[in-house]
Design a protein that fits this description.
With about 90 residues, the protein is an alpha+beta fold. It contains 3 helices and 5 strands. It has a 5-stranded antiparallel beta sheet with strand order 1-5-4-3-2. β4 (about 50-55) and β5 (about 60-65) form a beta hairpin.
């Protein structure tokens, strides 16, 4: 099992981060067949072999993920894709 921890700083307000993060996670959900939902400022998501949470605070998005055995081999690709989508959607 592999773990990912990503922190992304942004100049957006907390409310704007939530909107933009929703858009980013929508793209990620589509690409990786992940399902998720909001609970306050946390967005929990999962699929077979993946459990994760994105948390927002003023100026910061934190993403923590646990990858199962099969997806652990793709850790680098998944991390790269997440970072890329965050940079695109949350300047």
């Amino acid at each position: 099992m592999a773990k990912l921890h990503i922190e992304h700083k942004t100049s957006l307000s907390k409310d704007d981060i939530r909107v933009k993060l929703g858009e980013v996670m929508g793209k990620i959900e589509e690409k990786f067949d992940i399902k998720g939902s909001w609970s306050g400022d946390d967005y929990a998501f999962s699929r077979s072999g993946v459990d994760g949470k994105a948390s927002i605070k003023d100026g910061l998005v934190t993403i923590d993920m646990k990858l199962g055995l099969v997806l652990s081999a793709l850790k680098g690709r998944i991390e790269s894709e997440m970072v890329s989508k965050l940079k695109e959607g949350l300047p």
